[in-house]
Every structure is written in C-alpha cells, then in structure tokens.
Amino acid sequence: MTITEQKVKTELQGQPSGAMRQGLWFFPAGLLWMELVLRLSTIGFDYVKGILYTLGFSLAAGLLLCLLGKAFSPKAGRIIMTALWGILTVFYMGQVVYYAIFKVFFTLFSVGGAGQVAQFSSVIFSTIAQCWWALLLMAVPMALLIWKGKSWTVWGHRSWRELLWPLVAALVLQAATVCGVLLDTGGAMSASRLYTTEFISNLSVSRFGMLTTFRIEARNAWFGPMEAIKTGAEPEPEPEPEPERAKQVLDIDFEALARQTGDETLAQMYRYFAKATPGTENDYTGLFRGKNLIFLTCESLWKYAIDPELTPTLYKLWSEGFQFTNFYNPVWGVSTLDGEYVNLLGLIPVTGTWSMTESATNWLPFSFGNQFRAMGYTTRAYHDHTYTYYSRDESHPNLGYDYKGVGNGLNIRVTWPESDVDMMNATLDTVLADEHFMTYYLTVSGHLEYNFYGNAMCQKNRALVEHLELPEAAQAYLACNIELDRALEVLLQKLQETGHDKDTVVVLAPDHYPYGLDEESLNALAGKQLDQFSLYQSCFLVWSADMEQPVVVDKPVSSLDILPTISNLFDLPYDSRLMMGTDMLSDTQSPVIFQDHSWLTRYGRYNAGRDHYESLVDTGNDEMYAAGVNWLVDQKFIYSKLILRTDFYQKLWDDAGLWEQQSDEPAEESPGAADPVPPAE
After folding, report:
1. Residue 410 near residue 387, CB atoms below 8 Å
2. Helix (H, G, I), strand (E, B) or coil at 585
3. Which terminal Cβ of the chain has fewer Cβ within 10 Å, N or C?
4. pTM for the full model?
C-alpha cells in the first residue's frame, strides 16, 4: 500500500457511517432541490409527469456527481466538487434571473451573447432584488456543502469497487427514466418528441428539468443543428375550388425543381412548397402601390399604451388606419432580435440561435429593404442605440438597408434609453429629401426597466402620468411610450411639411409585449387578468393620410402575417407559399403560433404546455381539427428552420432561374425600378 493510499484509508476510517449515508444523497437531493426551486420561481408545476422525469434525471446526475467526488483523494474531491457545485449554483440562479426578465431560459447559444445582456446591469440588479427568495433557497445546498461538507460528506474511496455502485445506480436510473420518456408519445408535444427531435427550452425544462435540457441542447449542437425532415402523417386536405383571383406567387414550378435536384433536403422542401396553398389577390391588393413606406419596429409597444390623451398620435394612427383588433405579438427566444426577424422576414426564429444574425449571409429577397431597393427606392434603416448591438451592423445591410445607429452615423444624445424624438429629428430631413424611399426604424425609448430613477425617458415624461391610478412601473411604462408618441408626431409633421403625407404609408409593429413589467402592472394596464394567450394580444398599425375611413379586421392574426400583408398592399412581387404567415386582409388564415408550439385560430386554441385544446367554435370534429393544425404548425417550424439553415432562397433563385426572370420584368411599373442584385458569394 502506497503512502497516498494509506492516507486516504486513514481519512475514510475517520468518517462515521451516518456521515457516509448523508454524503451519498447530498448531490442527488441538492440537484432536485435546485430544479424544484427553479420551477417554483418560473414556470410552475402544471405538467405533473414532468416532476417524475425531473426526479429520475436529477437523481441519476446527482449520483454521477457523487461518483466524481469519490474518484479523487478526499481533499482533491472536496475542492473539485465544491467548485463545480458553485458553478451549478450560479447557473441555476442565472436562469431564474434571466427568466424573470425575458420569460424564457437562456440556452447554450445565449451564453455567447451574455455581454449584450450585461449592458443592462441596472435591470439585472433590480431583478435579483425581486428574485431574492429563490436565489437564497438555491444557495442553501452550497452553504451546507461549505459548512458541513468536510465532516459528513464522503470523499475518496478505499477501492475501485466503491466507485461501481453509484455508477450502476446512475445508469439504471437514467435508463429507466429515458425509457419512460420515450414511451410517453401522447399529445402533439409529447415528452418523447421533446427529448429526441424537437428542442423547445421552456417545454423541455417543464418535462425534464434544466440540467437535462442543457444536455439535450448540447447533444443536438454536438451532432449538428439540423434534423432530418419529419413530416409526420399529413392530414388529407379537403379539395378547394380554384380561386377566381390571381394567385400571389412567382413563376416557380416546385414539382419540377424537386425532380431535378440531387439534394434530398431541397427536394423535400420543393415538394412541401408545391403543396402549400397560395394566397390570392383581394380588394386591398395594390392599395399603396407606388407609395413610400416608413416601417417601425417599436420597443415593447403594447395595445394598452394607445390612449387618446396620453398618446394621441398613436391613437390617430389606430383610429384612422387599419384596425387589427385581434393581433398577437408572440415573444420568441431572443426578445427584440427575434421580434424583428418575424416582422421583417415572415419566418419563425430557430430556437437556440440568433436567427437574424445567422441570416446575415443569406439571400433574403422578400425583405422590405431588398424589395424596395430593387424598385429604385432609397432604403435606409436607423436604430437609436449602439449600432453593433445584436450584430445588426451585419444583418441589417443584408436586409437591403443603408444602416445607421449610435456609433456609425446617427448622432444623437446618448442616454439610457435614447430618445426616439432625437432619432426622428436627426434623420427625417435626409429621409424625406428623396422622392421614393423606404425607411426602417427600430426604436428604443420604450425599453425596460420601467421606473423613474434608471430610465431617462420615464423621467422625462413623469409629470404626464403621475396622476394615473396605476402601479408605478405601469406609469413609467406609459411615460416612456409618450416619447415614442412624440417621435411619431414629429414624423407626421415632417411628412406634411415636405408634401409626403399623401404618398407615404406609416407602419408600426411591436417587437414583443413589455415583459419588463410585473404581473400586477400588466394586469392593471390591461384592466383584466391576462392569461397565456391574451398577454400577447397587441397592436399593428398601418396608416396613410389619404385613407378615407378605417378598415377593421377582427380575425386572429399575428406578426408572422406582417410581411405578406404589406407585400400585398404595395403589390410587391412575392410568393405567398414561401412565407409562414398569410395576408391579414385575405379570406385565408394562418394559425397564430407561439414559441412553444401553442397556437390559436378563430375556432380554438391549443396550449402545448398542458397539451390541451380548447374549442371556441364547433368544427364538427375538434380532435381532427386540432391534429391538422398541430401538423401545420410543426411544418412551419421545420421549414422556417430549413430556409435559414440551407440559405434556401439563394438555392431556389439559382435552380429556378429567378435572377433572369426578375431582371426581364419591365421597369416602368415602379418608380426607378432596378434589377435585383444577387448576394455576394
């Protein structure tokens, strides 16, 4: 026996048997404790079976940690495991804070963008103060480990046989839990599907726990982000009569392309789009043909910020323009950036990545910037915050814009947040000097956090909201949206002064609801108790000074429908089969889709978290209807991902010869029309 072995044996002999039993279960119990506190402080306990799966995975992982602690000498094992447990504690605490701010969990990819979030240190500190109780509970195992670990936790081993039993126990528990998950195939978003093919962070945490969710994501990342196409059992479509009006499509024979290509993924995509039902022209097609467009993605704008007294310009745009009374603005994984991605590209963001940033090297023919630039318009984009934030200096030029932000040409006062009024005053003289323009604004004045000491826009307009009988955070939220309203007032005034009021369309879309508000403030602003769906009900404003009367649209629509709707109003050349939404003004409808695969239509709504369908209008066979919509929603997620990951539009344009087709179109139909420019290799 070596001196080291003798030393280890001596240390182990000093451990009482009770300490050994306590040490064996510390890590399994500690992990389960962290998972339960995480659920309690974030998503709750709606999915009962998920607690059983989390129990199994946590106990297995905890036993492996116990094995790791025993594999080294007592001193080394204790040091290694104390450090590792500290990392796990910070990881779980970070998830609680991140969820409290963004209402999603951060993923492996999000870690790479931690510097972006860290810019809002005041928000992080205030959120920590709100979540103190959960963070304190999560610190309990670490405190016990430091305080009692040396005396009652078993470290080291006398022989290799002592390492065998925790390994075997962990493998048996893991295998049994995995078998239970794989056999759990019930429901549209079954545990089996979430574990094997479909990564949705919030649902995965509710089923399997946070540690297993990270392991699933790491497994997917290690073996490649793209899964094989799974179309499932496609429901038999009912025959539809041939539409009387022209289809909104390009001259593409998808079936022929599927036969010609040697790429099976492309062939599957071509076959899918060949079957997609195209939209058709309607009474509003070309209503704004030849006009200019100013499109704004507005930070945290919500329908309850529109008020005739507080925000009269927003109210004017709403009351005189298109009134989408049932518009939804789902939140996605990367807050504002994913909100922009949906608004501007009509695609569902891919979970676990910055989809807009990833698209920076793709050909994006249907983006407003590229569409209007091809017609000879001057296309610009502005953001009144750091121009490199979320790598917009890479993505937004690729959308077809001459892009300026704070730091590369937009010269405004730097505050937090910056003023939308300052952005309008600094840019409109340049924008309105052109005869034909398409301009995109990304605002920031409505950004969290909502208080009167850390938000310059809330402070600026505080006197206008103090009389309201609302929580202070709700008052502050309205105060910073007054700044947006004043920016819009400047815009409308400048349009009138330059004679562009009748030839320009103003479009406003939110990026997401104000998730920086607590539940009390959200309910107070809405004047009612909000649920999973009504929380995301918001506003989409389309206005032109020459509209004679408002147009009311009451069917359920969402931000995914923005691109085809505006494309139809301006009569842009686009293919409706290639977009995941539909024209809001048409007779057809896409389901309103949420990040976790929940959805709603005029007939009913499906809650993926609880795997429950609620019928609103009798369809004659609700079970078949829900299954059909679930299948459709799945396809939209799958093909949105494939469009991004394969640079599909580039391949389609090459295979279908669309470069030549578009360049042969007559230029007289649009002001100063120009040939489309292929993306750089």
Report:
1. yes
2. coil
3. C
4. 0.89
Peptide bond into 417 cis (omega under 30): yes
- Judged by DSSP in three states, 327 sits in strand
Q: Which of 382, 271, 384 has the alpha carbon at shortest distance from 638?
A: 271
Backbone angles phi, psi at 396, to 5 degrees: -75, -35
Where do the H-state alpha helices sit in 282-385? 312-320, 335-345, 355-358, 368-374
**Amino acid letter at 613?**
Y
Q: Is the Cα dihedral 608, 609, 615, 620 positive or negative?
A: positive
CA distance 507 to 361: 27
Structure tokens at 654: 């090459």
Asked if residues 447 and 515 have their Cβ atoms less than 8 Å apart, the reply is no
Which tokens belong to 606?
A: 């499906």
- For residues 443 and 509, what is the distance between their CA atoms, to the nearest angstrom? 11
Q: Other C-beta atoms within 10 Å of 177: how many?
A: 22
DSSP symbol at 679: P
Sign of CA dihedral 489, 495, 496, 501: negative
Place of tokens 């499932």: 232
pLDDT single digits (tens) 360-395: 999 999 999 999 999 999 999 999 999 999 999 999
Give CA–CA dist 14/312, Å, rounded: 77
Q: How far apart are the first and last CA of the chain?
A: 66
Q: How far is CA 676 from CA 218, 270, 439, 650, in A?
A: 40, 23, 18, 13
Which pLDDT value is given to residue 671? Answer: 47
Helix (H, G, I), strand (E, B) or coil at 442: strand
pLDDT, tens only, 519-572: 999 999 999 999 999 999 999 999 999 999 999 999 999 999 999 999 999 999
Q: What angle do CA 639, 640, 645 make, to 5 degrees?
A: 90
- Band of residue 357 on the pLDDT scale cut at 50, 70, 90: very high
CA neighbours within 13 Å on the CB side: how many for 246? 13
Q: Is the peptide bond before 227 cis (omega within 30 degrees of 0)?
A: no
